Amino acid sequence: MAIKAENNVFSLETAHTLYQMKVDMFGVLNHLWYGAKTDCCMDYLLDYPDLGFSGNIYEAGDNRSYSLNTRPLEYGAEGVGDFRVPAISVTHEDGSTALDLRFQSYEIKRGKYKIQGLPAVYAKEDQAETLEIILKDTATETLVTLLYGVISEADVITRSVIVTNQGKTPVILNKVHSFAMDIPYGDWEWIHFHGRHVMERQAERVPLIHGIQESSSTRGTSSHQQNPTALLCEKGCTETTGFCMGMALMYSGSFQTQVQLDELEQVRMTMGIHADNFAWTLKEGESFYAPEVILSCSDEGMGELSRRFHHIIRNHVCRGQYQLSSRPVLINNWEATYFDFNEEKIEKIARQAAELGIDMMVLDDGWFGKRDSDTSGLGDWFVNEEKLRGGLNTLVEKINHMGMKFGLWFEPEMVSEDSELYRTHPDWAIRIPGRNPSRSRYQLVLDMANPEVTEYLYETISKVLRENHIEYVKWDMNRSICDWYTKTLPDSRQKEMPHRYVLGLYELLERLTGEFPHILFEGCSGGGGRFDAGMLYYCPQIWCSDDTDAHERTFIQYGTSFFYPISAVGSHVSAVPNHQTGRSTSIETRGTVAMAGSFGYELDLNILSEEEKQEVAKQIKTYKEYQPLIHNGFYYRLSNPHKENMAVWEFVSQDGKEVLVQGVVFRAKPNTLRIRIRLAGLEEGMYEVLGTGEVYTGKALMTGGILLPKVSGDDVSFEFYLKKK
Ligand code: GLA
Description:
Blueprint: E1 3-6, E2 9-13, E3 17-23, E4 29-36, E5 88-91, E6 101-110, E7 128-137, E8 142-151, E9 156-165, E10 171-183, E11 188-196, E12 199-207, E13 211-217, E14 229-234, E15 244-249, E16 255-261, E17 267-273, E18 280-282, E19 287-289, E20 293-298, H1 301-316, E21 330-332, H2 334-337, H3 343-356, E22 360-363, H4 391-401, E23 405-410, E24 414-416, H5 420-424, E25 443-445, H6 451-467, E26 472-475, H7 497-515, E27 520-523, H8 533-536, E28 541-543, H9 550-560, E29 569-574, H10 587-595, E30 598-602, H11 610-632, E31 634-637, E32 646-652, E33 658-665, E34 676-677, E35 686-689, E36 695-697, H12 698-703, E37 706-707, E38 716-724
Parallel strand pairs: 21-22, 21-30, 22-23, 23-26, 26-27, 27-28, 28-29, 29-30
Antiparallel strand pairs: 1-2, 2-3, 3-4, 5-10, 6-7, 7-8, 8-9, 9-19, 9-20, 10-17, 10-18, 11-12, 11-14, 13-16, 14-15, 15-20, 16-17, 24-25, 31-32, 32-33, 33-38, 34-37, 35-36, 35-38
Helix pairs in contact: 6-7, 9-10, 10-11
The site of alpha-D-galactopyranose has 11 residues, from loops.
């Protein structure tokens, strides 16, 4: 049994980790431990300081050293003397906000729990166990069920929360975070991933300051600006040594991660739906389901932590026919044509792509409605026959005839004011009565909380997918959301809307991905603006960034790799000078960088020289050979591009016999030694470097390293393939 409940202590054991909690003498659930296995009850580390201005619960009587404000709590609530950032906050019928949560009961179940209406980690019945702990408010009938999923083999614990109102009067939820943890000891640093459009997931490692630090989004999506993932590492933790833990929220809407260093140097961390634009009314008998947080920890550094997240997301989050199978190498016309295309242009791009070995043609924005620029057409998901004379079917047939699959772009959640949809249903766009809505990229957002809207989207999109031989869908979303208001809710409950939007989105995605399991869905939001584990439940890959510049991409992909598996990272070779940065890098460098993902091209290959075309054909062949290693192998970050003059990464096959090292040296330096790189994850025994015939021991390659060829020029890529002898 992975879950044990003895003497009021709950121990959740995975292959290498232990998660422990204890119900104390007052029924308060204390967090005891998350880390390496100790074979011990860790409650001996609990301390009870008599801290000034930390009050005591009434039952403690004259005992001044029992305070909720100093306890390492499992799930801290508001208003009862714990002054740290709460995981939950409610308003009762009488206007009061206190919630005094005490243990009521628990249950251990086989298998992994599911969450109503939300994506969640799944596992076979014999791969997981579930622990449900029910806490109850001392004065009302408000119940908080803490859910724990233990996926032992993966070293993962999942967490979620259900709040239930068993009382007669309504309760308003102001904040329900999915995860909270108090860590009394340690010297911690926090890694979060910030950025902007065309520059997502820049890893930033910062010390904790006293007070609350936050990474969050209020944009209605998980956002380019922050990502709903975080690491806490002990100071000095590296890629290969030291303790760290990671949290990934499986949610695609506004989120909030809060990290607090308190007066006793304890850390509290919470994560969940952003509380600012959230409220939820629970009437008698109703429950609220919070999204899931995936947790893992490692005492062998951040690399091991990342590999655990890659494993769980690839094997227990992603779904569908393409979950584990190889992904088609695709060509996308966006950067080749933008809106300016017709069927001839697309056929020409496709023909050249087919000749070079590409598997799939993806037709991006502009094929539908009246869509010659980004000012019109969104919502009209029927083909624009002025552009694609002969219709979509004819084009798809021609592409199929060339031996390629066909894929199509949609931006389902959006509407242009200049569209048939908007003219017919102006009230389907999100806007607050009496106010002008904010426009972004000229477009408005559809009210995904309105079932009429999601039904329309289901009908129109599924019609296109049913009537044409489409094998891939790019699901885009190109703005942040504000002006929250839905006519489907009474005015007093409008703060439910942001979450109801996400529920509507997930329902539609579930319906479409369920009905078209053979279609590869790729998520997108202006590149990687909605790159989260929630979307990965529906789309096994996500367009990583609208920045296709190979140099910049090494930073974006470095940050993305901390949590998300390499197969999830859509990455393409594009034209030079690069459209986002104006930088020119060689076709080799662009190929090497794009290969660390689900690979494709984003340019008109007809513009390339003959040598470049040959290089493209070679890249496609190489990628197809390496794809199983890249997607199923263990991933190692061998450098930190923010600190070093290079980005280097490595894939090691699960049996340790094959190794692929790839990288880019940013700037050439004169008069210097060749660069040495230490490999990781190798076994004992001999490895041969393919092409050079050099043979070294795994130990030598990991401790001594290997020398790169002499670097000449900037942003020069390299690649080694090693095989165990
Ligand atoms: C977003 C996507 C791009 C492209 C355009 C089309 O920016 O990230 O890849 O699809 O939209 O408008």
